[in-house]
Amino acid sequence: MSSLSFNRRTISKDIIAGLTAAIAGIPDGMASATLAGVSPVFGLYNLMVGTPIAALFTSSVYMAVINASAMALVAFDALAPYSGEEQVKAIVTLTLLVGSFMGLMGLLKLGWLTRFISNSVMRGFLTGIAIVIILGQLSDFTGYDLQGDNYLAKVFDLLRNLPQVDLATLAVGVLTIVIILILNRTRLKSFSMLIALIVGAAIVKFMTLESVALVGEIPEGLPLPMLPDLRLVPELLMSAIAIGIIGLVQAAGVSQGYANPDGKFPNPDGDFRGQGIGNMAASFFQGLPVGGSVSGTALVVGAGAQSRWANIFTGIFVAFGVLL
């Protein structure tokens, strides 16, 4: 693992890349946890542990193993029946099962299966996920509790009850999106989500907009280790397999698109195993499932990553963010 050697000439670039990825990853992790229907902190715990651990074992030097919206949506359905302390145990168990499945796929050398998934299938899948995410956030975005048995019914309910939309909530949401879109066209694009998050939160705080709901409290300190509840395995197994498949398929784009520093493309089986180990490690620290991300990897590489240290530093910086 020569790419893990400590090179003084390149380590500064890895630090900058890790810091950039952490700044983008903190609001993204909180958003993913919100999509999963749990406290935002669980989308940060996995970055603190899963991302750096996976970086040590993936065949890909640059692969960023982080939160993914598609995985979070499946996790939402799996975790919906649980609450309180039982929900935390379910998160631990679910992430451990996802990691075990990913690792098993790697040990069985089944990476070749990803070759049969076409680009059109992936585009359709990700587009569908994007639509579901947008429709699923309309209630929080407008401040109106949408009613209906499905997303389309809820959209029609919103259109029939536009006067009940909370204007303060809507204004904060629109402003946040506008800030992100504007900053994405500037040199601050790597910080766009963090800046938008800070500005929106500051407005709610200092203007005392009491009608704007909060996503939850972030506890102080780092997470303590927790063991899974094996009694939940039968209930969570199929969801874990579905989440694992989504993560592996998305990560295949990294394996095929980003060569290692030696010019060779990584082995998908090694990437499967690395993601599995990262998830298994994150599970004991209450982290949600993570997977290889094409956009996350592009961000790290674009920020100047030179080795595995970039993703290791990402986890370290996220931990500092939680402590602060």
How would you describe this protein?
- The protein is an all-alpha fold and 324 residues long.
- 64% of the residues lie in helices and 2% in strands.
- It is built from 13 helices and 2 strands; from the N terminus they run ααβαααααααααβαα.
- It has helices at 11-35, 42-57, 69-79, 84-107, 119-136, 138-142, 151-160, 167-183, 192-206, 233-257, 268-283, 294-302, 309-323; strands at residues 64-66, 291-293.
- Strands 1-2 form a two-stranded antiparallel ribbon.
- Helix 1 (11-35) packs across helix 2 (42-57), helix 1 (11-35) runs antiparallel to helix 12 and helix 4 (84-107) crosses helix 10 (233-257).
- The protein is globular and about 60 Å long.
- The chain starts with 10 loop residues before the first helix and ends with a helix.
Question: Quick recap of the structure?
Answer:
With 324 residues, the protein is mainly α.
End-to-end Cα distance, whole Å, is: 33 Å
- Cα radius of gyration in angstroms: 20 Å
* Estimated helix fraction: 55-70%
Report strand %.
Answer: under 5%
Major beta sheet, strand line-up:
1-2
Task: Note the run of SSEs as H and E.
Answer: HHEHHHHHHHHHEHH
> Which stretches of 5+ consecutive residues score pLDDT under 50?
none
Give the overall silhouette: globular
**How would you characterize the largest beta sheet?**
2 strands, antiparallel
Q: Structural class, from helix and strand content?
A: mainly alpha
Tags for this entry?
324 residues, two-stranded antiparallel sheet, 2 strands, 13 helices, mainly alpha
